[in-house]
Every structure is written in structure tokens, then in C-alpha cells.
Amino acid sequence: MGSLGFWRLAQADPGWIAAIDPDGVEYTGGELLSRANRLVHGLRELGLKAGDGICGLMPNGVEGLTLYLAALQAGWYYTPVNWHLTGPEIAYILADSEAKAFFAHDRYAVEAVRAAEEVEPERRFSFGEIDGFRPVADLTAGQPDSAPEDRTAGATMHYTSGTTGRPKGVRRALTGLDPDDSAELMTGLLALFGITPGPPNAHLVTSPNYHTAVTQFGGSALHMGHTLVYMDKWDPEETLRLCARYGVTNSHMVPTHFKRLLALPDEVKSKYDLSTLRWMIHAAAPCPVPVKWAMFEWWGDCVYEYYAATEGGGTLATPDGWKKHPGTVGTSWPISELLIVDDDHEPVPVGTPGTIYMKMGAGRFEYKGDPEKTAANRLRDFFTVGDIGYLNDEGYLFLCDRKADMIISGGTNIYPAEIENELMVHPKVADVAVFGIPDDEWGEQIKAVIEPMPGNDPGPELAAEILGTLEGRLSRMKWPKTVDFIEDMPREPNGKLLKRKLRDPYWEGRDRAI
């Protein structure tokens, strides 16, 4: 193979600026290489071997990147954990992933401590000080910064929530490849968009690194020799400032970002030189057609879109393809196939909506520990996340609706069943339904409809009391924004909730219920 891949690039040019933390501190490829190598040596001394897993509760930046790079050359699974989660939710992921080491940043100390009992004390490590955790410096002190022996490619294992409310790890078999060759293969993702390797390219990391796509696109950009520019918390003007300051050429965004950027005053928009932008890629939620046209008018033909899932496979809409077919999420990747089927799993004609199935090369995955869920979402070699869409006669995919209940807010998938389960335990709740309603900024916001137990007066006081019991049990991003009360929940005789009856009135007058 050629000369792409972080480790090759860092050895060839140790002075290459590989990453820039949110505080502006720059790190060379040589520094990152040394840090990752020392971490591998330290964890191997503790007994970690290929196939083991590590978890990181980390903000965006070089420290989390070091964990990722260590895992990818030691044959480990790396799971970045959503830092919005509460202690019990984190503990579930630590246990389910069978994490052999847990790394946490002191910013999330409170919930990290609550979760840590799932991991042996000598394998809990902190960046900064956390009670009951060993400083990472203890682990790496005295370790050589030379390349470890027996290097073998690791992988990320991200957790995707299931409709049961319990997250599932999306796990692929390790390839056994040399890490350098594996890293070079990863750059194929960006090559699909026509992205070129090497400086002076810079990739802006706009979203939390626990999202699959953020890790994949950032990691692939690094393996291409781009500089990663990290944002700690997304801000529209700061995005423009960083693009201008570091000559950003590519990024991964969600439509909520576009809406916030477009809302900036004209004098702010015109203050920054955005001439370096070449591949500004978005996904994760449908982008309203007028918003996308406005982005093209402002940024030019650098806005790319794709549709995919943690599980693999997808489509790509180039600027030209989207302009010819506004609203499309594109055509299938060269390494991916699409299949649209009806309820009997028979293919549907062009222009007819059906369930979208995808497959990607030979990259079969499993939901860790859940063969039933893995099998349920499969159709031969294809899988589905339950989205509904159709293909036009040129093979362009359009989404109509999604998996009946999933809420997408600000590009994050939120699963109502998990929220309903937590609300249902309240003694004053007789029945509950949670679903998404339109939100012009976030795409959707979370609405709860509650049937109170007899003798409880519906109103703001009862709503506040019920929501208050979610504290510490459910991360705030999953809390319903508003609560309505209902006398009788619409259910069929078999107990099936008719959620559409509740949801549809909120979506009236919208051109699509997504």
C-alpha cells in the first residue's frame, strides 16, 4: 500500500501539525505518535490483549484522540461514551462492552465515579483528578515511545440506541490487518467525496466525538494527513472564525448547524474568509430544501450530503446531484447497495415508498450480545434501520419518513421507549407516549403525552413533579421539552399504542413527517 495512515505520516513528518485542541494548543504528529505508543505499552503491561475493549468518557480533543490511536494499533475496540449520559447509563455501556479499561476526563468526574464500579480499580484512569481513578500519567510514566510489537488493527465500537431503549454496540470482526494498511483503507470514506490527502487540508470537528460519523470522518481525515481542528462546544461564529483562521477545507455537520449559521447577521457572515472550504459534508437529519439552497448561495458548491447508519452502507448527494434532484439524499456509494421493499420484503417499483435496506461490501456487523436484533434487521446480506423512502428513475434516494418513533433532535437520535420506560414508573402516571414534534431549530423536540392516574390534577405542577424524577436517571437531552395531559391514551384492544393519532396533529401542514 502507499503512504497514507497516521502512523506512517507521523514517522515521515514528525513536525506535521496533526491536531489543534479547542484551547488553540497545537500537537505534532510526532507528539501524538509518542503518546499513543506509550499508552499501548502501559495497557499491555496491565494485561490487555488484542480483541479487548476500552471506553473513554472524553470531551473533544487530543486526549480522546490518543485513546483512539492507541486502540487502532493494538487490536482493541475503542468505545467513546456519550458524556451526556448519567452514571447508570455509562455503567451499562462499560459492562456491556466488557471494557478492560475506563478513561474519564475530570469534567465528567461525578458521573464517571458513579459508573466506575463496573471496571477494576487499577484500570480506571483519569485526565485530571477523579476520586478512585489513577492519573493517565501513572500509566504512561517510564514507558517507551517506540512502536509496540505485534501491531494489529483495532476498531471503534459505537453504541447505537435500540427501540428497546438499551444501547447496542455495533461490533465488526477485527480484520487482522496491519494498522497502517487498515488506516489507508479508512481514507476511502473521504475519497468517496473527492477529498484529497495531505496538507494544507484541515478538518473541523464540530460535534462530540462519541458520534460514529464524527469519529469516522475525523479519523479518516487524520489518516489522510489533514490537521484536525477541535471545537469544544459548537458556536456559529466560532465555526466561521476557525475556518478562516486555520484554512479549514472540510468538516462534518448537521442541518441544525446550517440553520444557526444562516441566522447570523450579514456583517458577521461577511467578516470571515471562507475561500478554503471545499467539502462541507452533512448528514444525520433531513435538511430542509430552502436551508440547503441558502447554504449553496453562501458557501458555493462545497456542500455534500449523505445518508448512512452506524451499521454501514449509504448514499451520497454531490452538490450537482442535489441541485438536479432537490431534497434527495443521493445515490448509493460504489461499495454500497440499496434495496427498497414492501412489508412482504418484496422489491417495490421506482417512485414507490418502502423500507430502505442497505449493504456495504463484506462489512457484516452484529449488535453485540443481541443476535435477535441483528437478525431482525437483516434481509439476506442487507440491513435496515427502519427508514422509509423511495428511489427515482435515476437511482436517487428520497426519505419519506423514518422508523416510526425515533426522534432526531440536533442530529442526535433519541429513542422514545427509553424515556417512556422511565416516566411510566412514576406513581401518578397511568400511561405515557413520547414522540417528536416539529422544532424549527433542532428538527424535532421531545413531547410527552401523559394519562395521569385518577385523582391527580393535570397541569404544570404535575408535569414538573413527574419530570423532576428523571434527574440522575436520564440525561437532560432526553427529557421531554413539553408535557400534555390526556384522559384516555389511544390504544388498540391488543394494547398497541396508536402513536400516530397523537403525533399527526403536530405535523399538519408540514411537507414531510420527518
Task: Give structural notes.
Among the domains are: 332-403, Luciferase, domain 3; 407-507, ANL, C-terminal domain (GMP Synthetase, Chain A, domain 3). It is built from 18 helices and 29 strands. The model has no long low-confidence stretch (mean pLDDT 90). Helices cover 30% and strands 25% of the residues. Helix 4 (87-96) packs across helix 5 (109-115). Helix 3 (62-74) links the parallel strand 3 and strand 4. By secondary structure, the chain is α/β, with parallel strands linked by helices. A nine-stranded mixed β-sheet has the order 2-1-12-11-13-14-15-16-17, with helices on both faces. It has a six-stranded parallel β-sheet with strand order 7-6-5-3-4-8, with helices on both faces. A four-stranded antiparallel β-sheet has the order 18-19-23-24, with no helix packed on it. Residues 138-168 are annotated as: Disordered. InterPro entries: AMP-bd_C, AMP-bd_C_sf, AMP-binding_CS, AMP-dep_synth/lig_dom, ANL_N_sf. GO terms for molecular function: medium-chain fatty acid-CoA ligase activity. Belongs to the ATP-dependent AMP-binding enzyme family. Residues 7-359 form the AMP-dependent synthetase/ligase domain.
